[in-house]
Amino acid sequence: MRYFSVCSGIEAASVAWKGLGWECVGLSEVEPFPCKVLNHHYPSVYNYGDMTKLLSDERFLRTDFDVLVGGTPCQAFSVAGLRKGLADPRGNLMLTFGAIAAKYRPRWLVWENVPGVLSSNGGRDFGAFL
């Protein structure tokens, strides 16, 4: 299986799937510290940076993968946060995840977030994602 990871953080998916022999074909992370960790542990895997630019990145457009995995920022949905949902730019990254999935139609999607995403904006934010 070939997978592409967005909002990669320090790349939990690669750690989890290493024993399965799955191949990470690309990362998308912008935060400086996680980027350094990714470069150290996965120097041969290209970090495309800002996931909002993936749909227009020529290198990404030629990338083939079976699984799209990501944990978009949860602050917009968390009960510990301000709960601005899709009114928060970070919350909109879940829609970007969906747009990438819609365009590339990978066989599998793995999306991780907090339970508050189900009740944000009366459940309408999660409905928009679906």
Overview of this protein structure:
- 29% of the residues lie in helices and 15% in strands.
- It is of the alpha/beta class and 130 residues long.
What does the main sheet amount to? 4 strands, parallel
- What is the helix tally? 5
CA-based shape = globular
- Strands, total number: 4
Strand order, largest beta sheet: 2-1-3-4
Query: Quaternary state, please?
Result: single chain
> Spans with pLDDT under 50 lasting ≥5 residues?
none
Strand content: 5-15%
Beginning-to-end CA distance, first to last residue: 24 Å
Rounded to the nearest angstrom, the radius of gyration is 15 Å
Compute the average pLDDT.
94
Helix content, binned percent = 25-40%
Key words describing this protein structure:
130 residues, alpha/beta, single chain
Q: What is the strand and helix layout of this fold?
A:
Layout: E1 2-6, H1 12-17, E2 23-28, H2 32-41, H3 58-61, E3 67-70, H4 93-104, E4 108-111, H5 124-129
Parallel strand pairs: 1-2, 1-3, 3-4
Brief synopsis:
This protein is α/β, with parallel strands linked by helices and about 130 residues long. It has 5 helices and 4 strands, in the order βαβααβαβα. It is globular, with a radius of gyration of 15 Å.
